[in-house]
Write a structure and sequence with these properties.
Blueprint (H helix, E strand, L loop, with lengths): L3 H17 L5 H16 L3 H16 L5 E3 L6 H5 L11 E3 L6 E2 L25 E3 L6 H4 L10 E5 L3 H12 L4 E9 L2 H15 L5 H11 L3 E13 L12 E2 L11 E2 L11 E8 H13 L11 H5 L29 H10 L4 H12 L4 H10 L12 H10 L4 H12 L6 H9 L4 H9 L7
Parallel strand pairs: 5-10
Antiparallel strand pairs: 1-5, 2-3, 2-4, 6-7, 7-10, 8-9
Helix pairs in contact: 1-2, 1-3, 3-6, 7-8, 14-15
């Protein structure tokens, strides 16, 4: 796409000026310049402009788009409309005169939870914003990690988003991301046993294990990623990178997929994740039924917050299915496991809900870890590690050098734990023993 760098630069700056005024506050200006230098300097502006155009088209057609994963760590993504998450620290912003206040008293991790305030300059009620997410979560500490912009479109709109991508790049340059289904060890064992029976063979268990291992991981079928698209540059041929084919189960389909598994080529060709999701569809239906604009509903409504810990706001006295919380029908909070977390932690803030989402999505983050520290009184919900950004920000706050803090958090979130020298470093700056133990128990963590 021609002039993508100039367009991203212009879109981000004009929105920043619209929200924060010109000149920008230093904290906004510094973050914006740092991100734009990384994005444009490494040639990733093309990914941003594609996402921006697809999201804008969906919004223009009346369907919200949810941003997945760590794209919410980028203020450029926020200013260009790719994500609704503002990664700046918690702050007030006046919608009328654009006065902003970043110097906040008290321990607030999310702007939503700030007390209401009127603008000291013009008297207008101020907007509360900021989720305090470091950019390193998205593109690495040096800003050179390939960004992965994952978007949740309405399931009703997903086909249209794919069509729009084809309109942008041309039919010959867009392919569905192929997958390869392999034989699992349990299936291989069945094949081996059947083969031995047919041949009348009775080998020992070591030989059976050898045959099973030889079959495990062999290609069984090919398929397609539910929302992944591979985009080819206009001056290249797809066969330089991968053969292509129809899906294995439908050779008459008009869909063309990459024959090689997309993991093998996603570092060489651009992969877009344009997934279909029920939430944007439900929100669109609720808007149509109620006449309300979702974006104008405050995120700090007290009665809505109470639904997570009580059924009273729903007008229900008691219910065997809902039990003690009203969260049964709320996406990501309705499972028995997460409702149990809500009862254990009793969140009263928006930040508390974010933290519970981190705990419920990670592996070995809640059970036998944070849950034990909370229930034993060693730590509170605000203290425990819930998302990978928690580690980075806490270590920096405790005096550990930022790039070192990021390296440690990356190791922990991948389940690799702490090196002995890192443990010594953390003990040296006064980080408690339980926190170090918790880092070593984690197997995988989600971004904020």
């Amino acid at each position: 796409i021609e002039n993508s760098a100039e367009e991203i630069n212009s879109l981000a700056r004009s929105k920043a000026f619209e929200l924060y005024g010109d000149p920008l506050p230093k904290i906004v200006s510094d973050r914006l310049e740092m991100e734009l230098n990384s994005i444009i300097g490494h040639g990733y502006d093309i990914m941003y402009i594609i996402a921006q155009k697809l999201v804008k088209k969906s919004l223009d057609d009346g369907y919200l788009v949810g941003s997945r994963g760590s794209v919410g760590s980028s203020v450029v993504a926020y200013f260009t409309g790719i994500t609704e998450v503002n990664a700046l620290p918690p702050h007030y912003r006046c919608p009328k005169c654009r006065h902003s206040i970043f110097d906040i008293e008290g321990d607030y991790r999310t702007g939503v939870d700030l007390p209401d305030m009127v603008c000291p300059i013009c008297g207008e009620k101020m907007d509360k914003d900021g989720f305090d997410i470091p950019f390193a979560t998205f593109m690495g500490f040096k800003g050179d990690k390939t960004p992965d912009i994952d978007l949740n479109f309405s399931g009703e709109y997903q086909a249209q988003a794919h069509k729009e991508t084809i309109n942008l790049f041309g039919e010959k340059n867009v392919f569905r991301a192929g997958t390869i289904g392999t034989i699992k060890s349990r299936t291989a064992y069945g094949f081996v046993k059947k083969y031995l029976e047919e041949k009348g063979l009775n080998p020992n268990s070591a030989e059976i294990d050898r045959l099973v291992e030889g079959c495990t991981g062999i290609k069984r079928t090919t398929g397609q990623h539910p929302g992944g698209l591979i985009v080819l540059p206009r001056d290249r041929n797809i066969h330089e990178f991968t053969p292509v084919q129809h899906p294995a189960d439908d050779v008459s389909s008009s869909v063309i997929t990459t024959h090689f598994d997309y993991h093998s080529i996603h570092d060489n060709l651009l992969k877009l994740d344009l997934l279909g999701h029920d939430d944007p569809t439900m929100i669109r239906m609720l808007e149509d039924l109620s006449g309300l604009n979702t974006k104008k509903i405050p995120l700090d409504d007290k009665e809505t917050m109470r639904i997570f810990t009580s059924i009273a706001p729903l007008g229900i006295d008691g219910d065997d299915i809902l039990e003690e919380t009203g969260a049964a029908a709320i996406p990501e909070f309705g499972t028995k496991n997460v409702r149990g977390m809500l009862l254990d932690t009793q969140p009263t803030t928006f930040d508390g809900l974010l933290r519970i989402s981190g705990l419920s999505h990670g592996t070995n983050v809640w059970r036998n870890n944070a849950q034990d520290y909370i229930l034993s009184g060693v730590a509170t919900l605000n203290d425990v590690i819930c998302v990978r950004d928690d580690i980075t920000l806490y270590l920096i706050k405790m005096g550990i050098e930022p790039s070192q803090a990021f390296t440690i958090s990356e190791s922990v979130r991948k389940g690799k734990g702490l090196k002995p020298e890192w443990e010594e470093l953390m003990q040296g700056v006064g980080i408690p023993k339980w926190y170090i133990e918790s880092c070593n128990k984690i197997e995988y963590m989600f971004p904020r």
